[in-house]
Specification:
By secondary structure, the chain is of the alpha+beta class. It contains eleven helices and nine strands.
């Protein structure tokens, strides 16, 4: 941490740690009260290390560049003899960098929400990346007027360079749009916990993000709210079980985590216009080959 900048306002949004050939292993830990609101970028020019998340980690081996979305990194370890820099930036200061309109075909917001590991980067790329870190470092030291604009420009440059180099880009949809890792993680958690009837806040807390940020990601990637996606999954599963299993309506309700079959009936009718039993009878009268189930998940 740059000691002379600790008391400056910029320090609440930005930090840059220099790793300069330590004689023994060294570690960095994210501030517990703020970690979920900060993203990190690691440029490792020599040595190795480990980026630690909740329950997992990725190996760092120079030369490499890594971008870690807000709410992921809880700590980082560097081996003795390593050289590099660890940049930490708040979402408040990241937003101007991802709201760029000049290049609509570069998905800045999705890039910032995605974990990137650019391994074995060459000297030419390092020569382009290093000035970004140095410019941000200067703003952190000096805190001149317009610091936020300078930092934003450097972050935009970093994200563009990531976009050009990263072969493992965020998954694309049929219309060519890119869905963020945050959105993909949310879908995975829904698959695990939809029967537990988790609320949106439970999903957000598990992923280390705010409800507002989760909603922003789902609306950007699929145009729907988190609660809509959760309910769609429940309805999709209910339709599958009602159409293709011999279970009673009450058994379907209990299997989906509903403690009260009457509530399940109201929930189902609100979404499908018919009570579960009525819907099942209609479906079974139709041709077996006709796809009458709920819209494809998600």
């Amino acid at each position: 941490m740059i000691e002379t900048a600790i008391q400056q306002p910029i320090q609440r949004h930005l930090d840059l740690i220099d790793v300069r050939y330590p004689k023994s292993p060294t570690s960095w830990t994210a501030p517990k009260q703020d970690w979920r609101h900060f993203a990190q970028c690691i440029l490792l020019r020599a040595g190795s290390g480990k980026a630690r998340f909740k329950g997992t980690h990725i190996e760092l081996k120079a030369p490499m560049l890594a971008w870690l979305p807000a709410g992921m990194l809880i700590g980082c370890d560097f081996a003795a003899g390593s050289q590099g820099q660890l940049l930490t930036v708040s979402e408040d200061w990241l937003i101007p960098a991802v709201n760029r309109q000049l290049e609509p075909n570069v998905p800045f917001r999705s890039l910032a929400d995605t974990l990137h590991e650019i391994k074995s980067i060459d000297d030419q790329l390092i020569a382009r990346i290093q000035p970004c870190f140095e410019a941000i470092k200067s703003e952190l030291y000096e805190n001149h007027i317009g610091a936020k604009s300078v930092v934003s420009a450097q972050l935009t440059t970093l994200l563009v360079l990531l976009f050009r180099q990263d072969a493992d880009r965020p998954p694309e949809t049929e219309d060519g749009s890119i869905r963020s890792t945050l959105f993909q993680r949310f879908l995975q958690l829904i698959e695990l916990h939809f029967r537990d009837h988790w609320k949106v806040v439970n999903y957000a807390e598990n992923m280390g993000v705010t409800e507002r940020r989760l909603e922003s990601a789902t609306r950007r990637d699929i145009g729907q709210s988190p609660i809509t996606l959760i309910q769609r999954k429940l309805i999709s599963e209910a339709c599958q079980r009602l159409a293709h299993s011999p279970l009673s309506v009450a058994e379907v309700a209990y299997g989906l985590g509903f403690k009260d079959p009457a509530y399940f009936n109201r929930f189902f009718k609100r979404h499908m216009d018919d009570a579960p039993g009525t819907w099942r009878r209609k479906i079974r009268k139709q041709a077996p080959s006709e796809d009458t189930t709920f819209a494809a998940w998600p």
